[in-house]
Write a structure and sequence with these properties.
about 350 residues; about 35% helix; binds 1,4-dihydronicotinamide adenine dinucleotide; binds the ligand NCC(=O)COP(=O)(O)O; oxidoreductase
Amino acid sequence: MIGPGRNLLVVTQGDPAGIGPELILRAWLHRREQALPAFAVLADPDHLGRVTRDLGWSIPISPVEPSKAIDTFDAALPIIPLSHAVSAEPGRPDPAYAASVIEAIETAVRLVHSGAASALVTNPIAKHVLYDAGFRHPGHTEFLAALAAAPGEAAPHPVMMLWSEALAVVPVTVHIPLGSVPSALTTELIVETGRIVARELRVRFGLSHPRLAVAGLNPHAGENGAIGTEDSTVIMPAIEILRQDGIEVAGPLPADTMFHARARSRYDAALAMYHDQALIPIKTIAFDEAVNVTLGLPFVRTSPDHGTAFDIAGKGIARPDSLMAAIKLAARLGAGRPAP
Ligand SMILES: NC(=O)C1=CN([C@@H]2O[C@H](COP(=O)(O)OP(=O)(O)OC[C@H]3O[C@@H](n4cnc5c(N)ncnc54)[C@H](O)[C@@H]3O)[C@@H](O)[C@H]2O)C=CC1
Ligand SMILES: NCC(=O)COP(=O)(O)O
Protein backbone atom coordinates (compact mmCIF):
# COMPACT_ATOMS: atom_id res chain seq x y z
CA MET A 1 0.00 0.00 0.00
CA ILE A 2 1.14 3.54 -0.78
CA GLY A 3 0.17 6.64 1.17
CA PRO A 4 -1.85 7.14 4.29
CA GLY A 5 -4.99 5.10 3.61
CA ARG A 6 -6.73 2.34 1.64
CA ASN A 7 -9.40 4.73 0.36
CA LEU A 8 -9.40 5.18 -3.40
CA LEU A 9 -9.39 8.65 -4.94
CA VAL A 10 -10.72 9.17 -8.45
CA VAL A 11 -9.07 11.76 -10.69
CA THR A 12 -10.73 13.12 -13.83
CA GLN A 13 -8.72 13.75 -17.00
CA GLY A 14 -9.92 17.36 -17.38
CA ASP A 15 -9.71 18.81 -20.88
CA PRO A 16 -7.84 16.08 -22.81
CA ALA A 17 -6.02 18.75 -24.87
CA GLY A 18 -4.80 20.53 -21.72
CA ILE A 19 -2.12 19.63 -19.20
CA GLY A 20 -4.39 17.35 -17.12
CA PRO A 21 -3.28 14.07 -18.75
CA GLU A 22 0.46 14.73 -18.36
CA LEU A 23 0.02 16.01 -14.79
CA ILE A 24 -1.67 12.73 -13.86
CA LEU A 25 1.27 10.81 -15.36
CA ARG A 26 3.80 12.94 -13.47
CA ALA A 27 1.88 12.66 -10.22
CA TRP A 28 1.93 8.85 -10.55
CA LEU A 29 5.69 8.94 -11.21
CA HIS A 30 6.10 10.90 -7.94
CA ARG A 31 3.75 8.61 -5.98
CA ARG A 32 6.39 7.15 -3.66
CA GLU A 33 8.52 10.19 -2.81
CA GLN A 34 5.33 12.26 -2.29
CA ALA A 35 3.56 9.43 -0.37
CA LEU A 36 0.52 9.94 -2.57
CA PRO A 37 -2.59 7.95 -1.72
CA ALA A 38 -3.86 5.52 -4.34
CA PHE A 39 -5.79 7.12 -7.17
CA ALA A 40 -7.44 5.95 -10.36
CA VAL A 41 -7.90 8.06 -13.48
CA LEU A 42 -11.10 8.46 -15.44
CA ALA A 43 -9.95 8.70 -19.04
CA ASP A 44 -9.67 6.97 -22.41
CA PRO A 45 -6.72 4.54 -21.87
CA ASP A 46 -5.67 4.75 -25.55
CA HIS A 47 -5.48 8.54 -25.35
CA LEU A 48 -3.45 8.47 -22.15
CA GLY A 49 -1.18 5.85 -23.73
CA ARG A 50 -0.58 8.15 -26.70
CA VAL A 51 0.19 11.11 -24.42
CA THR A 52 2.70 8.93 -22.56
CA ARG A 53 4.43 7.74 -25.73
CA ASP A 54 4.50 11.23 -27.30
CA LEU A 55 6.21 12.55 -24.17
CA GLY A 56 8.71 9.67 -24.32
CA TRP A 57 7.85 8.61 -20.79
CA SER A 58 7.77 4.99 -19.67
CA ILE A 59 4.67 4.55 -17.56
CA PRO A 60 2.64 1.35 -17.29
CA ILE A 61 -1.08 2.04 -17.66
CA SER A 62 -3.61 -0.50 -16.53
CA PRO A 63 -7.34 -0.34 -17.36
CA VAL A 64 -9.13 -1.67 -14.29
CA GLU A 65 -12.44 -1.92 -12.51
CA PRO A 66 -12.66 0.46 -9.53
CA SER A 67 -12.43 -2.43 -7.05
CA LYS A 68 -8.98 -3.42 -8.45
CA ALA A 69 -7.48 0.08 -8.59
CA ILE A 70 -5.86 0.27 -5.15
CA ASP A 71 -3.99 -3.02 -5.58
CA THR A 72 -2.86 -1.96 -9.07
CA PHE A 73 -1.61 1.50 -8.08
CA ASP A 74 1.90 0.62 -6.92
CA ALA A 75 2.85 -1.16 -10.16
CA ALA A 76 0.83 0.72 -12.78
CA LEU A 77 -1.37 3.77 -13.22
CA PRO A 78 -4.94 2.47 -12.88
CA ILE A 79 -7.43 3.80 -15.43
CA ILE A 80 -11.16 3.40 -15.20
CA PRO A 81 -12.01 3.53 -18.92
CA LEU A 82 -14.60 5.95 -20.26
CA SER A 83 -16.94 5.00 -23.08
CA HIS A 84 -16.04 8.02 -25.24
CA ALA A 85 -12.83 7.71 -27.26
CA VAL A 86 -10.62 10.78 -27.41
CA SER A 87 -8.08 11.69 -30.09
CA ALA A 88 -7.19 15.15 -28.75
CA GLU A 89 -3.89 16.79 -29.59
CA PRO A 90 -2.20 18.79 -26.83
CA GLY A 91 -2.99 22.50 -27.06
CA ARG A 92 -5.87 21.99 -29.52
CA PRO A 93 -9.11 21.97 -27.52
CA ASP A 94 -12.26 20.88 -29.31
CA PRO A 95 -15.90 20.84 -28.14
CA ALA A 96 -16.04 17.35 -29.70
CA TYR A 97 -14.40 16.03 -26.52
CA ALA A 98 -16.96 17.62 -24.20
CA ALA A 99 -18.90 14.36 -23.87
CA SER A 100 -15.77 12.60 -22.60
CA VAL A 101 -14.92 15.45 -20.20
CA ILE A 102 -18.43 15.40 -18.76
CA GLU A 103 -18.54 11.60 -18.60
CA ALA A 104 -15.37 11.64 -16.46
CA ILE A 105 -16.91 14.08 -13.96
CA GLU A 106 -20.24 12.25 -13.81
CA THR A 107 -18.55 8.87 -13.37
CA ALA A 108 -16.33 10.23 -10.60
CA VAL A 109 -19.38 11.51 -8.70
CA ARG A 110 -21.13 8.16 -9.16
CA LEU A 111 -18.11 6.31 -7.76
CA VAL A 112 -17.98 8.61 -4.74
CA HIS A 113 -21.72 8.36 -4.17
CA SER A 114 -21.58 4.57 -4.33
CA GLY A 115 -18.71 4.43 -1.83
CA ALA A 116 -16.28 2.94 -4.38
CA ALA A 117 -14.14 6.10 -4.00
CA SER A 118 -13.61 8.32 -0.99
CA ALA A 119 -13.19 11.65 -2.81
CA LEU A 120 -12.72 13.09 -6.27
CA VAL A 121 -10.03 15.28 -7.78
CA THR A 122 -10.76 17.10 -11.01
CA ASN A 123 -8.28 18.28 -13.60
CA PRO A 124 -8.93 21.62 -15.29
CA ILE A 125 -11.58 22.08 -17.95
CA ALA A 126 -11.77 25.00 -20.37
CA LYS A 127 -15.13 26.52 -19.69
CA HIS A 128 -15.56 28.21 -23.06
CA VAL A 129 -14.91 24.92 -24.89
CA LEU A 130 -17.64 23.18 -22.90
CA TYR A 131 -20.00 26.14 -23.35
CA ASP A 132 -19.53 25.75 -27.12
CA ALA A 133 -20.74 22.17 -26.71
CA GLY A 134 -23.85 23.30 -24.82
CA PHE A 135 -22.63 22.77 -21.24
CA ARG A 136 -24.88 24.96 -19.10
CA HIS A 137 -22.99 25.18 -15.79
CA PRO A 138 -20.41 27.92 -15.09
CA GLY A 139 -17.80 25.33 -14.02
CA HIS A 140 -17.15 22.15 -12.03
CA THR A 141 -18.30 23.81 -8.81
CA GLU A 142 -21.88 24.33 -9.93
CA PHE A 143 -22.01 21.14 -12.04
CA LEU A 144 -20.94 19.06 -9.04
CA ALA A 145 -23.62 20.69 -6.90
CA ALA A 146 -26.22 19.75 -9.54
CA LEU A 147 -24.90 16.16 -9.56
CA ALA A 148 -24.99 16.09 -5.76
CA ALA A 149 -28.69 16.99 -5.56
CA ALA A 150 -30.90 14.25 -4.19
CA PRO A 151 -33.73 13.26 -6.56
CA GLY A 152 -36.45 15.92 -6.51
CA GLU A 153 -34.44 18.26 -4.29
CA ALA A 154 -32.65 21.51 -5.00
CA ALA A 155 -28.88 21.46 -5.53
CA PRO A 156 -26.81 22.35 -2.47
CA HIS A 157 -25.14 25.77 -2.41
CA PRO A 158 -21.54 25.11 -3.51
CA VAL A 159 -18.75 27.35 -2.27
CA MET A 160 -15.38 27.66 -3.99
CA MET A 161 -12.42 27.87 -1.65
CA LEU A 162 -8.80 28.13 -2.76
CA TRP A 163 -6.74 26.72 0.07
CA SER A 164 -3.03 26.66 0.92
CA GLU A 165 -1.08 26.55 4.17
CA ALA A 166 -0.36 30.29 3.74
CA LEU A 167 -3.81 31.54 2.77
CA ALA A 168 -7.37 30.37 2.12
CA VAL A 169 -9.73 32.51 0.05
CA VAL A 170 -13.38 32.26 -0.94
CA PRO A 171 -14.84 34.27 -3.83
CA VAL A 172 -18.44 35.03 -2.83
CA THR A 173 -19.34 35.73 -6.46
CA VAL A 174 -17.43 33.60 -8.94
CA HIS A 175 -17.62 33.37 -12.74
CA ILE A 176 -19.61 36.48 -13.57
CA PRO A 177 -18.56 39.67 -15.35
CA LEU A 178 -17.08 42.31 -13.05
CA GLY A 179 -19.90 44.70 -13.96
CA SER A 180 -22.47 42.23 -12.58
CA VAL A 181 -20.79 41.86 -9.18
CA PRO A 182 -22.47 44.73 -7.29
CA SER A 183 -25.98 43.53 -8.14
CA ALA A 184 -25.14 39.86 -7.52
CA LEU A 185 -23.71 40.63 -4.09
CA THR A 186 -26.41 40.36 -1.44
CA THR A 187 -26.34 40.18 2.33
CA GLU A 188 -28.00 36.73 2.12
CA LEU A 189 -25.32 35.42 -0.26
CA ILE A 190 -22.50 36.59 2.00
CA VAL A 191 -24.18 35.13 5.10
CA GLU A 192 -24.89 31.78 3.43
CA THR A 193 -21.31 31.60 2.12
CA GLY A 194 -19.81 32.56 5.50
CA ARG A 195 -21.89 29.94 7.31
CA ILE A 196 -20.79 27.18 4.92
CA VAL A 197 -17.14 28.20 5.18
CA ALA A 198 -17.20 28.35 8.99
CA ARG A 199 -18.98 24.99 9.22
CA GLU A 200 -16.62 23.21 6.85
CA LEU A 201 -13.49 24.71 8.41
CA ARG A 202 -14.73 23.15 11.64
CA VAL A 203 -15.99 19.83 10.33
CA ARG A 204 -13.61 19.03 7.48
CA PHE A 205 -10.49 21.02 8.39
CA GLY A 206 -10.72 20.46 12.14
CA LEU A 207 -10.53 24.12 13.24
CA SER A 208 -12.45 24.42 16.50
CA HIS A 209 -12.90 28.20 16.23
CA PRO A 210 -12.56 29.37 12.60
CA ARG A 211 -11.82 33.05 12.07
CA LEU A 212 -13.18 34.72 8.93
CA ALA A 213 -12.13 37.98 7.33
CA VAL A 214 -14.53 39.66 4.92
CA ALA A 215 -13.22 42.01 2.24
CA GLY A 216 -14.91 45.23 1.26
CA LEU A 217 -16.00 45.68 -2.33
CA ASN A 218 -14.82 49.24 -2.92
CA PRO A 219 -11.43 50.91 -2.44
CA HIS A 220 -10.77 51.47 1.29
CA ALA A 221 -13.92 49.42 1.99
CA GLY A 222 -15.96 52.38 0.80
CA GLU A 223 -14.20 55.14 2.82
CA ASN A 224 -17.27 55.66 5.00
CA GLY A 225 -19.56 55.70 1.98
CA ALA A 226 -17.56 58.26 0.00
CA ILE A 227 -16.30 55.62 -2.52
CA GLY A 228 -19.28 53.30 -2.66
CA THR A 229 -22.03 52.15 -0.36
CA GLU A 230 -22.12 48.32 -0.68
CA ASP A 231 -19.56 47.94 2.12
CA SER A 232 -21.91 49.50 4.66
CA THR A 233 -25.32 48.55 3.21
CA VAL A 234 -24.70 44.97 2.03
CA ILE A 235 -21.49 43.59 3.55
CA MET A 236 -21.62 45.05 7.09
CA PRO A 237 -25.14 43.66 7.79
CA ALA A 238 -23.93 40.20 6.68
CA ILE A 239 -21.00 40.41 9.09
CA GLU A 240 -23.35 41.34 11.92
CA ILE A 241 -25.57 38.30 11.20
CA LEU A 242 -22.56 35.97 11.07
CA ARG A 243 -21.36 37.40 14.41
CA GLN A 244 -24.80 36.78 15.90
CA ASP A 245 -24.29 33.14 14.81
CA GLY A 246 -21.20 33.10 17.03
CA ILE A 247 -18.70 33.16 14.16
CA GLU A 248 -15.58 35.31 14.59
CA VAL A 249 -15.59 37.70 11.65
CA ALA A 250 -13.48 40.75 10.86
CA GLY A 251 -14.46 43.31 8.23
CA PRO A 252 -15.32 44.74 5.88
CA LEU A 253 -11.56 45.04 5.43
CA PRO A 254 -9.91 47.14 2.72
CA ALA A 255 -8.87 44.40 0.29
CA ASP A 256 -5.50 45.95 -0.50
CA THR A 257 -4.14 45.49 3.01
CA MET A 258 -5.64 42.16 4.10
CA PHE A 259 -3.34 39.72 2.33
CA HIS A 260 0.15 40.60 3.59
CA ALA A 261 1.72 38.12 6.00
CA ARG A 262 0.82 39.85 9.29
CA ALA A 263 -2.78 40.40 8.19
CA ARG A 264 -3.11 36.76 7.09
CA SER A 265 -2.12 35.54 10.54
CA ARG A 266 -5.34 37.02 11.95
CA TYR A 267 -7.81 34.83 10.03
CA ASP A 268 -8.28 31.30 8.68
CA ALA A 269 -10.19 32.18 5.50
CA ALA A 270 -10.86 35.40 3.63
CA LEU A 271 -14.21 35.98 1.94
CA ALA A 272 -13.63 38.07 -1.17
CA MET A 273 -16.40 39.76 -3.08
CA TYR A 274 -15.37 38.69 -6.59
CA HIS A 275 -13.19 36.13 -8.37
CA ASP A 276 -9.96 38.06 -8.90
CA GLN A 277 -10.05 39.72 -5.47
CA ALA A 278 -9.70 36.19 -4.08
CA LEU A 279 -7.58 34.41 -6.66
CA ILE A 280 -4.92 37.04 -7.36
CA PRO A 281 -3.49 36.98 -3.81
CA ILE A 282 -3.47 33.20 -3.44
CA LYS A 283 -2.04 32.50 -6.90
CA THR A 284 0.63 35.12 -6.24
CA ILE A 285 1.58 33.70 -2.86
CA ALA A 286 1.10 29.96 -3.51
CA PHE A 287 0.58 29.14 -7.21
CA ASP A 288 2.26 25.73 -6.95
CA GLU A 289 0.71 24.73 -3.62
CA ALA A 290 -2.84 26.05 -3.66
CA VAL A 291 -5.81 23.73 -4.09
CA ASN A 292 -9.36 24.49 -5.19
CA VAL A 293 -11.78 22.73 -2.84
CA THR A 294 -15.55 22.81 -3.15
CA LEU A 295 -17.37 23.33 0.15
CA GLY A 296 -21.05 22.63 0.72
CA LEU A 297 -21.19 19.30 -1.13
CA PRO A 298 -21.98 15.94 0.47
CA PHE A 299 -18.62 14.66 -0.86
CA VAL A 300 -15.05 15.91 -1.08
CA ARG A 301 -13.83 17.48 -4.32
CA THR A 302 -10.49 19.14 -4.87
CA SER A 303 -8.68 20.41 -7.96
CA PRO A 304 -5.42 22.15 -8.83
CA ASP A 305 -5.62 25.95 -8.65
CA HIS A 306 -4.56 26.48 -12.26
CA GLY A 307 -6.29 26.01 -15.60
CA THR A 308 -5.76 23.95 -18.74
CA ALA A 309 -2.54 25.74 -19.76
CA PHE A 310 -2.99 24.95 -23.47
CA ASP A 311 0.13 27.03 -24.18
CA ILE A 312 2.40 24.38 -22.62
CA ALA A 313 0.32 21.20 -23.02
CA GLY A 314 2.23 18.24 -24.45
CA LYS A 315 5.65 19.77 -23.74
CA GLY A 316 6.21 17.85 -20.52
CA ILE A 317 7.05 21.01 -18.57
CA ALA A 318 3.81 21.56 -16.63
CA ARG A 319 4.36 21.34 -12.88
CA PRO A 320 2.31 18.66 -11.08
CA ASP A 321 2.67 20.32 -7.64
CA SER A 322 -0.83 21.74 -7.37
CA LEU A 323 -2.41 18.49 -8.61
CA MET A 324 -0.39 16.54 -6.04
CA ALA A 325 -1.45 19.00 -3.33
CA ALA A 326 -5.06 18.48 -4.46
CA ILE A 327 -4.66 14.70 -4.23
CA LYS A 328 -3.19 14.96 -0.72
CA LEU A 329 -5.89 17.34 0.48
CA ALA A 330 -8.65 15.15 -0.98
CA ALA A 331 -7.23 12.18 0.93
CA ARG A 332 -7.05 14.21 4.13
CA LEU A 333 -10.59 15.58 3.85
CA GLY A 334 -12.12 12.34 2.60
CA ALA A 335 -10.31 10.08 5.03
CA GLY A 336 -13.35 9.62 7.26
CA ARG A 337 -15.31 7.91 4.51
CA PRO A 338 -15.13 4.14 4.64
CA ALA A 339 -13.88 2.14 1.67
CA PRO A 340 -16.44 -0.33 0.25
N1 LIG B 1 -10.60 24.05 -12.15
C1 LIG B 1 -10.68 24.34 -13.46
O1 LIG B 1 -11.27 23.58 -14.21
C2 LIG B 1 -10.05 25.60 -13.99
C3 LIG B 1 -10.12 25.84 -15.34
N2 LIG B 1 -9.59 26.98 -15.88
C4 LIG B 1 -9.69 27.11 -17.33
O2 LIG B 1 -8.39 27.09 -17.89
C5 LIG B 1 -8.38 27.81 -19.12
C6 LIG B 1 -7.09 28.58 -19.23
O3 LIG B 1 -7.05 29.56 -18.18
P1 LIG B 1 -5.86 30.58 -17.93
O4 LIG B 1 -6.45 31.78 -17.33
O5 LIG B 1 -5.03 30.71 -19.16
O6 LIG B 1 -5.01 29.93 -16.75
P2 LIG B 1 -3.98 28.74 -16.72
O7 LIG B 1 -3.80 28.44 -15.28
O8 LIG B 1 -4.40 27.63 -17.61
O9 LIG B 1 -2.62 29.33 -17.31
C7 LIG B 1 -2.05 30.56 -16.87
C8 LIG B 1 -0.52 30.52 -17.04
O10 LIG B 1 0.02 29.64 -16.05
C9 LIG B 1 0.76 28.59 -16.66
N3 LIG B 1 0.49 27.35 -15.91
C10 LIG B 1 -0.73 26.92 -15.50
N4 LIG B 1 -0.60 25.76 -14.86
C11 LIG B 1 0.70 25.45 -14.86
C12 LIG B 1 1.44 24.34 -14.34
N5 LIG B 1 0.87 23.32 -13.69
N6 LIG B 1 2.78 24.33 -14.53
C13 LIG B 1 3.38 25.34 -15.17
N7 LIG B 1 2.73 26.41 -15.67
C14 LIG B 1 1.39 26.46 -15.52
C15 LIG B 1 0.26 28.51 -18.10
O11 LIG B 1 1.21 27.93 -18.94
C16 LIG B 1 -0.09 29.95 -18.39
O12 LIG B 1 1.07 30.62 -18.83
C17 LIG B 1 -9.65 28.69 -19.12
O13 LIG B 1 -10.45 28.26 -20.18
C18 LIG B 1 -10.31 28.41 -17.78
O14 LIG B 1 -11.72 28.24 -17.92
C19 LIG B 1 -8.95 27.91 -15.10
C20 LIG B 1 -8.84 27.71 -13.75
C21 LIG B 1 -9.37 26.54 -13.09
N1 LIG C 1 -10.81 30.20 -11.47
C1 LIG C 1 -11.20 29.05 -10.75
C2 LIG C 1 -11.93 28.13 -11.62
O1 LIG C 1 -12.15 28.41 -12.78
C3 LIG C 1 -12.37 26.85 -11.05
O2 LIG C 1 -13.66 26.58 -11.49
P1 LIG C 1 -14.34 25.18 -11.24
O3 LIG C 1 -14.31 24.48 -12.56
O4 LIG C 1 -13.60 24.47 -10.18
O5 LIG C 1 -15.74 25.55 -10.85
